Amino acid sequence: MKSSFPRQFIANTLALFCGWLVLSGKYDNFHLVLGFTASCGVAWLNTGFPHSPFQQFPWGRMVLYGPWLFLRIVESSLHLTKLILNPSLPIKPRLITYRSQLQHRGAIVVLGNSVTLTPGTITVEINGNTFLVHAIDEAAADDLTTGRMERKIAWVFQEDTNL
Amino acid sequence: MVILSIGLILVGVFFLVVAAIGTIRLPDVFSRSHAVSLTDSLGAICVLAGLALYQGFGINMLKILVVLVLLMLLNPVIAHATVRAAYRAGLKPQTEKDQ
After folding, report:
1. Radius of gyration of chain B from its Cα atoms, rounded to whole angstroms
2. ipTM for this prediction
């Protein structure tokens, strides 16, 4: 942990400074120096927190997971739109208990977040590895119950799951 | 470019209206939260993408993309917190048998 301190400090500073560049939009010397000083200060205060799940976060593969999730979101949004606009309102709400095999805490967060982000399913409670999910009908929960979403996330975090 | 961005914004507004209708039509807080999540998925994506196109490439487009990423991260957290609070307060979701 101690040995990786300088590398992590530099990475944090750069990430914060990029955020400053996007949000401030002023590129004269005064604002650049001010932003760099502030980034260094905040990074110095925040580096070395133990056991943050984001320290070995696979950002690269996460970016590849994004488009897949986006397509799933579009698909289930259209499904939900059809349900809502149907005059007979053919919904079959249900609670689903789903036991996941993911180990990494970040992976569990990503799975819960993806489930909620997809219209038609929402994470009600997470207890260790057990998800309680409310789904508006059977088709909406297909991605979760067939394990498709979990397989994708297991690939992102390079975990061995015998799914 | 302008026509494309207007089209995107109109599509987004359509999904926002559908979400509003769904919030009224659906029976309980759990299924209503599904309708609300339609707002921050397709509704917000289309409206913000339309605005980003309208701005053209530049710092403002980047800022809109930052807003989009923050929405994708924060909205599920808010929806989850609401639903979990309802569940822990003892609200039981309507299921198929009740209807």
Report:
1. 17
2. 0.81
Whole-angstrom distance, CA of residue A31 vs CA of residue A35: 6
Nearest CA-CA distance, residue A113 and chain B, Å = 6
Using an 8 Å Cβ cutoff, are A99 and B63 in contact?
no
The per-residue pLDDT for range B13-62, each reduced to its tens digit, is 999 998 898 888 888 888 888 888 888 778 888 899 899 888 888 888 88
Q: What is the pLDDT of residues B65-94, one digit of tens each?
A: 888 888 888 888 888 888 889 888 888 777
Strand partners, A126: A131
Interface of B with A (CB under 8 A): 15, 18, 21-22, 25-28, 30-31, 33-35, 37-38, 41-42, 59, 62-63, 66, 72-73, 75-77, 79-80, 83-84, 87, 93-96
Report residue B93 as tokens.
């979701």
Give the type of residue at B56: G
Judge: B30–A89 Cβ closer than 8 Å, yes or no: no
Closest-CA distance of chain B to residue A64, Å: 15
SS3 A121: strand
